[in-house]
């Protein structure tokens, strides 16, 4: 039975496809904990059928990710099939072993743009990526794509290690000729849940956005498009400038609305940065793309959300009905369920105005599975150190039970 309250499911604008979980790096912030292939990854023919079904569903662009997509021997065939189906095809990569031959073949097959993940300056990047020399090899791979006639972009995770390096890093990336720079925060899932020391504290957003204002100035001066990730915002004084390239303000999470994720074993989910039973609606081998997209609760629940699904500070926020608590992939791994998100510029500003600040504290670790998470609490306290020492926490928002632990109510539809 289909939920009558949900909006009609139009085809996704983007499908972000983890082509393989095999990876040649060991990133401290990797959500899927990439390294080894998943058991029973899709075969070449199965991948080509997925491409056909994405086309039939009306998908506009397929973004190939991993692990490392180029570690599949058939990744060029899949790029070519996507392009021949009339969809755009891009790739996000660390570039460690993106050889000249691979780069040339990707361009010949029709790849539209290649986005290189570069997290901070050389020492920071190599530390986070777990491979000495990975920073230099990423820049070398950028040049191979560019020299082969391709277009290059970059993405960077903002965390406790990289937040002070954004401006000098941008100049180096701009010198290489990137057309766009995506910025996103590191979220506490997968490997990052095992390294809470690299996570941002919510009160850091005040200084981070002062830096981002300078970054925007430099992007405009050098003709590079800034593309904020869905977990970076929301509704502070920089919102309009930050999302100018997207020609919109933040209007709520897009998981299952305009984007879908596909894991390399055929699991279909609402967001490429989420996993597990809360977010996987079914497997392609059992149901196909269309049925999971249109009928599963996991891919459809965000289409039908209301402010009554929000909780904590976000429920009472002035922007609640528009923002809907920001990015699900930031909130759910932090507090166990979406609907309350302290990783917010506006929220940090409101706290500062009241003489307060927020910080997160891990109370449970993760279990070692792809996209798993621990649990954190949000501690609200005085910004003044003396008052903080005297009074302790002003308020504490504890994590809430996940949706997977709740009974399914009337109108929820699952593909089984």
From TrEMBL:
SUPFAM superfamilies: Radical SAM enzymes. InterPro entries: 4Fe4S-binding_SPASM_dom (IPR023885), Aldolase_TIM (IPR013785), Elp3/MiaA/NifB-like_rSAM (IPR006638), PqqE-like (IPR017200), Radical_SAM_PqqE_MftC-like (IPR050377), rSAM (IPR007197), rSAM_sf (IPR058240). It holds the Pfam family Radical_SAM. Keywords: 4Fe-4S, Iron, Iron-sulfur, Metal-binding, S-adenosyl-L-methionine. Residues 9-225 form the Radical SAM core domain. Its cofactor is [4Fe-4S] cluster. Coiled coil: none annotated. It comes from the Bacteria. NCBIfam families: rSAM_more_4Fe4S (TIGR04085). This is Radical SAM protein. It comes from Nannocystis pusilla.
């Amino acid at each position: 039975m289909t939920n009558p309250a949900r909006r009609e499911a139009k085809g996704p604008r983007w499908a972000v496809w983890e082509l393989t979980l095999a990876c040649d790096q060991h990133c401290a912030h990797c959500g899927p904990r990439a390294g080894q292939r998943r058991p029973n990854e899709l075969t070449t023919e199965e991948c080509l059928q997925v491409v056909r079904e994405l086309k039939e569903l009306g998908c506009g662009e397929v973004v190939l990710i991993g692990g490392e997509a180029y570690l599949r021997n058939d990744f060029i065939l899949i790029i070519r099939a996507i392009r021949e189906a009339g969809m755009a095809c891009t790739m996000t990569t660390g570039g460690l072993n993106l050889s000249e031959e691979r780069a040339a073949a990707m361009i010949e097959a029709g790849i539209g743009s290649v986005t290189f993940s570069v997290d901070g300056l050389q020492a920071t990047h190599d530390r986070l990526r777990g491979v000495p020399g990975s920073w230099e090899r990423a820049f070398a791979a950028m040049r191979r794509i560019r020299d082969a006639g391709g277009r290059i972009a970059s993405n960077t995770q903002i965390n406790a290690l990289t937040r002070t390096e954004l401006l000098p890093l941008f100049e180096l990336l701009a010198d290489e000729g990137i057309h766009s720079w995506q910025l996103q925060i590191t979220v506490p899932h997968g490997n990052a849940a095992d390294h809470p020391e690299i996570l941002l504290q919510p009160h850091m957003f005040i200084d981070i956005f002062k830096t981002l204002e300078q970054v925007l100035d430099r992007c405009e001066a050098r003709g590079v498009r800034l593309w904020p990730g869905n977990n970076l915002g929301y509704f502070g004084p920089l919102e309009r400038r930050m999302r100018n390239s997207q020609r919109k303000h933040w209007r709520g999470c897009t998981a299952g609305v305009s984007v879908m994720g596909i894991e390399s074993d055929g699991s279909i989910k609402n967001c490429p940065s989420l996993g597990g039973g809360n977010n996987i609606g079914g497997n392609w081998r059992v149901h196909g793309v269309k049925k999971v997209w249109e009928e599963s609760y996991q891919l459809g629940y965000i289409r039908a959300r209301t402010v009554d699904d929000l909780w904590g500070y976000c429920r009472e926020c002035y922007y609640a009905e528009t923002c809907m608590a920001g990015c699900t992939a930031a909130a759910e791994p932090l507090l166990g369920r979406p609907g309350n998100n302290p990783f917010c510029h506006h929220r940090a500003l409101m706290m500062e105005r009241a003489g307060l600040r927020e910080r997160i504290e891990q109370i449970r670790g993760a279990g070692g599975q792809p996209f798993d998470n621990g649990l954190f609490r949000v501690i609200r306290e005085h910004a003044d150190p003396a008052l903080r020492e005297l009074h302790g926490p002003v308020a504490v928002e504890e994590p809430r039970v996940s949706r997977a632990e709740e009974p399914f109510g009337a109108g929820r539809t699952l593909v089984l």
